[in-house]
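INFO  loader      accepted 1 record
INFO  loader      residues=72
INFO  predictor   begin
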Amino acid sequence: MTGDSDDFERLYDALHRIVRTEEDASISGLYDSRMHVLSLCYDLRHARMGHRSAEFQEHGLDAEQMKFLSCL
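INFO  predictor   done
INFO  writer      dumping tokens
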């Protein structure tokens, strides 16, 4: 994966919104899948903290381009 710190933070937040609560997962039978996604979130968080061999790369977009793309 490549991206800047904000990209990883957005991915982390989006994944947490998707997996919802443990109770929701157990009701729908998705507990194991939820745990796999949360494992990825754990690694993303530690990569952002510098505890993994992560190399952040700028995506080359400036603030104006990002604003434009968020409207699409």
